[in-house]
Known about the structure:
By secondary structure, this protein is of the alpha/beta class. It contains ten helices and 14 strands. The strands form three sheets. Strands 1-5-4-3-6-7-14-13 form an eight-stranded mixed sheet, with helices on both faces. A four-stranded mixed sheet has the order 2-12-9-8. A two-stranded antiparallel sheet has the order 10-11. Helix 2 packs antiparallel against helix 9, helix 3 runs parallel beside helix 4 and helix 7 crosses helix 10. It is globular, with a radius of gyration of 21 Å. The two termini are 41 Å apart. N,N,N-trimethyl-histidine binds next to helix 9 and strand 12.
Amino acid sequence: MPSPSPARRYTLLESDPHAQRVTFAEAVAEGLGSEPKSLPCRFLYDEVGSKLFEQICRLPEYYLTRAERRILETRADEIAACFDEPALLAELGSGSSDKTRLLIEAFLKRQPRLRYVPVDIARSILDESAQALLADYRELEIHAIAGEYEQGLASLRRETRGPKLIAWLGSNIGNFDRAGAARFLARIRDAMTRRDRLLVGIDLRKSRRALERAYDDASGVTARFNLNLLARINRELAGEFELDRFEHTAVWHEPDGRVELSLVSRAAQTVAIRALDRVVRFRAGERIHTEDSFKYSFAEIAEVAAAADLAVTRRWLDPTRAFSLNLLSPAP
Ligand code: AVJ
């Protein structure tokens, strides 16, 4: 039987705009009005920021993406073989679904068709990558969800015809602190049945040198990515930040297990943000905390999993042992 055309194998669910979280303007007013100053990292990913992040993934210093891809290249078949019935593949924060192709191919060697449910906030990227996947894999059916993780999970909870693999790759868990990671894993757990599995990419603790370089590369791409947050305030909120008066920094805090990204004011200065009708004062050396990237030991992975009623049943590492892929199952 011929496969239906790509268009007939694609559905897109757009999240309710009223379910929207805090707007950029509200977050900026709140974060720059606080002491110490901070901005939520999710605002780093506008169109410009997403492009810069793709460049980060190709940097020689940023080992994460390559290490994870390497694991999938060698282990995707083994991961798919964890299911003894045709499974569904879901992905939180799917982006370009680049690495996911390896999982899709592994499942399609074992089952005649595959339903893939990517969840991402960027609708245009979802559409684009879905079209490319559907053209390449005739046995694929895609139900894309454009929205926050929460919407995706609500919809995934209803997918119970067979077992599902929920992939959460790229060490995106790293943006949560330990308690937040446990809480979010528990939300995912709530959308799982006993036969479902969660595949989580988690970056591991390593030397300060390797970590600080990964987040402050020689070519300055990560600095541009971070400074884009100020550029975005200028673009969207008529801000008057002079980007060269702020410095990007990345500092490894060993006890917490996190790399802290900040923008440090190079001098005492006052910056107007006209759309907010306010000015923000900076002391020389004052920082805006923009992102945390948490790194894990095996014990820490087991702890956050257990706190969410999940157990680590399999783990795969890349040859340099920099990065881990973890298969989590509902705890018995
Ligand atoms: C997208 C959260 C996985 O923490 O490595 C990379 C974000 N920020 N370089 C990471 C990021 C600066 C990235 N995550």
